[in-house]
Amino acid sequence: MAETADGYDDSSTHSTGSIHETAHIEPLYEAFRCPLTRKVMHNPVTLETGQTFEREAIEKWLRECIVNGRPPTCPVTKKVLSSTELNPSIALRNTIEEWTQRNEAARLDVARKSLFVGSPEADALQALDYVIDICHMNRPNRNHVRKGELIPLIADMLKSSSLRVRLKALETLRILAEEDDDNKENIALGDTVRTIVKLLSHEHFQEREGAVSLLYELSKNESLCEKIGDVSGAILILVGMSSSKSVTVSIVERAEKTLENLERCEKNVRQMAENGRLLPFLRLLLQGSPDTRLSMAAYLGELVLSNDVKVFVAETAGSALVDLMRSGNKEAREAALKALNQISSYETSAKTLIEAGILPPLVKDLFMVGSNQLPMRLKEVSATILANLVACGANFESIPLDHNRQTLVSEDIVHNLLHLISNTGPAIECKLLQVLVGLTSSSATVLNIVAAIRSSGATISLIQFVEAPQREVRMAAIKLLKNISPHMGQDLADSFRAAGSQLSSLVSVMAENNGISDEQAAAAGLLADLPERDSVLTRRLLEENAFIIIISKVRGIRQGEIRGGRFVTQFLEGLVTILSRVTYMLDENRFIVFAQEHNLAALFTELLQTNGLDKVQATSAAALENLSQKSKYLTKIPDPPQPGFCGFCFSKPTQDTAGICKLHNGFCSIRETFCLLEGKAVEKLVALLDHTKEQVVEAALAALCTLLEDGVIIEEGVTVLCETEGTRQILEVLCENRTEVLRQRAVWAVERILRREDIAYEISGDQNVGTALVEAFRNGDYRTRQIAERALKHVDKLPNFSGIFTKMST
């Protein structure tokens, strides 16, 4: 830019209506100019010749004379000076200052007229440039700008539609704010800070850089830090900028420094914590005054933290919070408990807190009675924390709680938990039930809890929670009972039989029609684990219409009418297991009628094809075994032929024998007689013999063995198996020898199959089968060895006169 002799930027004189052209300034007197620089003097001094110069300029002239070996001379008169003394020209300096102030005031007045949002871009830029120039000339000029009330006008230019004007306004305000608290506060009046924050999000990086630089200057004034933080989104945007990889380094650095300044306000530190900037918050929590530490701990309990942040807080401040909980007053303990509740809700952070020693003081507070006990609302928080900790799956049996080395699964501790559950409100009941759910979810600790429940006689009281009106309490109780049911099945069955309407409540839970919930899956799993041959309980379930509800649910799931979700497998497994109870009650006619009316054999046959649901397949096969065993009693035997008029000589059938089951020698169907052959279940059962899970293979083989048992036409049963490749699969099961149960069943089935001479002849040359039978003959139990002996005789591996074993009816 060009400069005039008076030191002002003269670029504006090139545009129409420039400040220099329109300002009514006083003329520039030649006496105001330095003869050397031709600029208006700021510090005039006079030589002995009477000539006046700018001090800095004449001092430079005199130094050059000496350096060049010339005598000091006056630059104007060229006379050699006898003295280089410089006398300040105070009167002239004052006159120049007054003249300058009057001219600057006039020019500022002209600039004011161009500082409005609708001003032409060129005029606005010129006015802002002039303000920048006079600020650079000397610091007092910044006061003139403020006193001239130009700052609000400049701030308004931040709302201009012109990017260039906005950038220039940001620069001007930043210069005005530098090292001037009065100007900073003046800039922050009104909604200017909000406008600056808005500009932080604009697309143009220069605008973002200008905004963050101005905000940094303002943040140096401590009194403005809270005001900046109060602008919605300010700290969030700055936190994002400070960690962004998509902005310039200068923006990142300015944002970081601005945040560091804003940390002086505790309120801002909280906001930073909300937005993921934790270090300032944790510094106050760990190093602040007692009141500040308490305040930060209390606020931590209100924050919503991501899992990663929970881990970071637990590692950084976990021990301090545990100490505060252990040794603080009630107010401090409350704040610490709420904070610990927040960060204990994630598995990794919970384990960190356990390592920090949270369990002993937590359990102590929970069980404490007397004057020092926590109020119930804080005991609820303690119970919630304990539930969170237990859910992380730590080795609680190895973590001592006191000098007696008691642990969370010690009998006395569990008794205390059970006592609290029975003597507190629903909120604490729910959390403590969840604690027991967590402890019984581990195979390492479940037996300890089961023993404590038995020794305390708490089974009945726990079952009563199944009827709790609060869903969370009811769900926790059902989950707990489900976890202990494999170890306390008969105890629970006895309690359900003795109890009132708890069984009805479980059935009602399963009957709910809001998709498939965790609670429904747990209820089904609980009932499924109760002893399947408990006839009294099965009759109760029939009276409660439980089986009708279950059939509807199973079919709804299979047909896609009931929404699945992550609990569908557990729910379906439980439902099928409960339904299978009906097949253990077929000695009672009403259960046979029920199975016929609802075509249970067809349903279980269909369920054999639920690939991937091993338990459903195994349970369905076992149910079909039970049903198939009844087929020979339910089949309708045709009437014998009636003699004709010549007696028995010319008799003929009086009933059509077409459609008679070759296996049962009567009229069969899957619905009425549960016939596997008529229901086309044989092929599906044979397919399961190739299953990878032994449990499924055992159940399928047991069901197929009903085709070979006494009371059916065994030879026809063998034929059916041959036609479906079942014989080959059974022989493979025998040779694989996967479990003792499978070997026993396979040996039994193979002996029956080998009664057919053609098959026995064919198999006699199979070394693998012979070896498997010999192995069973040598190492099986008494009955298996006897059956294996008969099978070996069929294939001529043993002589028929062998008398090793006493004959035994089959």
Structure report:
Pathway: Protein modification; protein ubiquitination. It catalyses: S-ubiquitinyl-[E2 ubiquitin-conjugating enzyme]-L-cysteine + [acceptor protein]-L-lysine = [E2 ubiquitin-conjugating enzyme]-L-cysteine + N(6)-ubiquitinyl-[acceptor protein]-L-lysine. One of its GO terms (molecular function) is ubiquitin protein ligase activity. It is a single chain. This protein has 810 residues and is an all-alpha fold. The chain is 61% helix and 2% strand. It is built from 43 helices and five strands. The strands form two sheets. Strands 2-1-3 form a three-stranded antiparallel sheet. A hairpin with a 5-residue loop joins β1 (44-46) and β2 (52-54). α7 (163-177) runs parallel beside α10 (205-219), α17 runs antiparallel to α18 and α30 crosses α31 (568-579). The longest helix has 28 residues, at 471-498. The radius of gyration is 48 Å and the shape is elongated. The model is unreliable at 1-24, 645-652 and 801-810 (pLDDT under 50).
Please state the oligomeric state of the protein chains shown. Answer: single chain
Order of strands, widest sheet = 2-1-3
Going by helix content, strand content and strand pairing, the class is mainly alpha
Instruction: For the record, give the distance between the C-alpha atoms at the N and C termini, rounded to a whole number.
Output: 117 Å
What's the mean pLDDT score?
88
Task: Provide a count of the helices.
Answer: 43
Beta strands, count: 5
Identify the overall geometry. elongated
Main beta-sheet annotation: 3 strands, antiparallel
Query: Radius of gyration, Cα only, in angstroms?
Result: 48 Å
Provide the β-strand percentage band: under 5%
Roughly what percent helix? 55-70%
Low-confidence stretches: 1-24, 645-652, 801-810
